[in-house]
Amino acid sequence: MLERLVREADIEHIILAGDEQIVPLLKAEFPKAVEEKIVDVLSLDINAPEHVVLTETMEVMREYDAQNDVEKVKRLLD
């Protein structure tokens, strides 16, 4: 069901948030196609305010995009 949702919603990137005990258990249950879309795992409190979650996830995506851009440029130059 999760894999279908990710596919139908055209979700390209996933950021998980949770403690170091639950995240590995959660990832182990994901289908491979879903797990491959995980770009980072954040350690956020379950009660973190929405603006903190948004700020943290946006920073992760900026870093992810920047790294992908660097890799694309390197491939073009090779």
Give your account of this protein's structure:
The chain is mostly helical. 60% of the residues lie in helices and 12% in strands. The protein has helices at residues 2-8, 22-29, 32-35, 50-77; strands spanning 14-17, 38-42. Strands 1-2 form a two-stranded parallel ribbon. The longest helix is centred in the C-terminal third of the chain and has 28 residues, at 50-77. The model has no long low-confidence stretch (mean pLDDT 92).
Assembly form of the protein: single chain
Q: What would the principal axes of the Cα set say about the shape? A: globular
What percent of residues adopt helix (DSSP H or I)? Answer: 55-70%
Low-confidence stretches: none
The end-to-end span amounts to 41 Å
For the residues shown, what is the average pLDDT? 92
Keywords:
2 strands, globular, mainly alpha, about 80 residues, two-stranded parallel ribbon, 4 helices
Brief write-up:
By secondary structure, this protein is mainly alpha-helical. It is built from four helices and two strands, in the order αβααβα. It has a two-stranded parallel sheet with strand order 1-2.
What's the topology here?
Blueprint: H1 2-8, E1 14-17, H2 22-29, H3 32-35, E2 38-42, H4 50-77
Parallel strand pairs: 1-2
